[in-house]
Design brief:
- The structure is a single chain.
- By secondary structure, the chain is mostly helical.
- The protein has one domain (2-211).
- The chain contains twelve helices and no strands.
- It has helices at 2-17, 20-27, 42-49, 51-76, 79-83, 86-103, 116-126, 128-145, 148-165, 170-186, 188-196, 205-211.
- Helix 6 (86-103) runs parallel beside helix 10 (170-186).
Length: 212
């Protein structure tokens, strides 16, 4: 059992480590680690390069999480494996690996994003209803506040609460809690700026350009 879990973790890490934000920005002649917030996540790419590249990065980062959480099911989906929750455990380990890979990528000197998109993709595979609730919370919080960080933090809180309220299996509730705490910890600098009133609201690139 240990070796398959290690394989799921390593594959998940390597999938998560794929630096799509860096690669998409590089294709546009930009080193995303040197501009904006210097974060390779979809939000910074969108701020710097616009909606198209930003949305592409979000989709690709979400796909990393979905693949890391979902591929074990294709190899282990037998009645006996399902009875023993093997696809579930492999998927959980794969997603945790992907989050670590995304945030600490071996391809970019262990720099990375905050894991929101990657977590979203993986949780949509493992706990789709809870993930959709978190998406709704994110959307509402963002459009009310225009703070991406605040929306992400509230969505991270909503994820384990909804998983518990919906009666998900204990391993998935624990996963949702761990993922939520991981995302919040990755936003600790944003939390400090929110408290200090210095956090930047999201402004469309075109609007920002016209204002300057």
């Amino acid at each position: 059992m240990l070796v398959p879990l290690l394989i799921a973790a390593v594959v998940g890490y390597l999938l998560g480590a794929l630096p799509f934000g860096y690669l998409v920005a590089r294709a546009k002649g930009v080193n995303i680690f040197e501009v904006g917030s210097k974060n390779p996540g979809a939000t910074n790419v969108r701020r710097v390069l616009g909606a198209g590249p930003g949305n592409l990065v979000f989709a690709l980062d979400a796909l990393k999480g979905a693949a890391a959480a979902g591929w074990p099911a294709f190899l282990t989906y037998t009645p006996e494996a399902v009875r023993q929750n093997i696809p579930l455990y492999w998927g959980i380990v794969g997603l945790v690996g992907a989050l670590l890979g995304h945030s600490f990528s071996c391809f970019t000197k262990f720099r990375g994003g905050k894991g929101v998109a990657t977590a979203s993709g993986g949780m949509l595979v493992l706990v789709p209803l809870s993930a959709l609730i978190a998406v709704v919370v994110w959307t509402a919080a963002f459009f009310l506040s225009r703070y991406v960080s605040l929306a992400s933090i509230l969505a991270a809180l909503a994820l384990p609460i909804s998983a518990w309220a919906l009666g998900q299996p204990l391993p998935l509730i624990i996963l949702a809690l761990v993922v939520g705490l991981f995302v919040i910890l990755r936003h600790r600098a944003n939390i400090a700026r929110l408290i200090n009133g210095t956090e930047n609201k999201f402004v469309k690139k075109s609007a920002a350009a016209s204002a300057s």
